[in-house]
Amino acid sequence: MSIRLAPSLLSADFSRLAEEVAEVEWGGAELLHLDIMDGHFVPNFTFGPPVVRAIASHSKIALDAHLMVTNPDDLIDDLIAAPVARIAVHVEVCNHLQRTLENIRAGGVEAGIAINPASALALIEDALPWTDFVLIMSVNPGFGGQDFIPETLDRISRLRQMAGKRPLDIAVDGGVCLENAASLANAGATTLIAGSAIFGVDDRASAITDLRLSATVGGVR
């Protein structure tokens, strides 16, 4: 699988979201990552379905929703209607993970599992048949601009082995930058979610291009 870049809107200027979306679209991003936080599962609160609908109306690229919320099932129908292309729910809060993943897929949306840095990969192994992608957190969720946790590389490699021949998309979120993009790709990541590494520089197109080159030329994939 080729490497995809997904700018994380959490690091964008919220006062000019339409312009920020247009800049990363023009820069060649394949996905737009949306961190939806409830102030309960994580300390911060960001936005909900009404803002996602507004973003969708200005975006030509697919929306990738990451639900950092205690009750993800309450938001799924509204996000499918927004529309988004992908929804990731946290294994730590889903009481009936298989049912939640099936409900997402039934809406014509890719279903993903997000997992925190200290949560065992074994928690998601039996759910992989109903999973289109796994989002490995390489920082603890809830805040942008954190330092990458290096042990994530081993977790990505072990998840890739766990998936076997299944064409599983492995996304990684947190501290992604030029310095680790190649290592992430070599470990088996296929979607790189980057916030400050893209929105923290003036030329978003160059930032996206440089990350992609680092991951594909610097890596072996």
UniProtKB/TrEMBL annotation:
Give the EC number(s) listed in the UniProt record: 5.1.3.1
For this record, the Gene Ontology CC terms, alphabetical, are: cytoplasm
Per its UniProt record, the required cofactor names are:
Fe(2+); a divalent metal cation; Zn(2+); Co(2+)
Specify which residues bind a divalent metal cation according to the UniProt entry for this protein.
Answer: H33, D35, H66, D173
Cofactor: binding comment: Binds 1 divalent metal cation per subunit.
Protein name as catalogued: Ribulose-phosphate 3-epimerase
The active site is formed by D35, D173
Functional description taken from the UniProt entry: Catalyzes the reversible epimerization of D-ribulose 5-phosphate to D-xylulose 5-phosphate.
> Which family is annotated?
Belongs to the ribulose-phosphate 3-epimerase family.
Which reaction(s) does the protein catalyse, per the Swiss-Prot or TrEMBL entry? D-ribulose 5-phosphate = D-xylulose 5-phosphate
**Source taxon at top rank:** Bacteria
| Gene source species | Candidatus Sulfomarinibacter kjeldsenii
What biological-process terms (Gene Ontology) are attached? Answer: pentose catabolic process; pentose-phosphate shunt
Named in its record, the pathway it takes part in is: Carbohydrate degradation
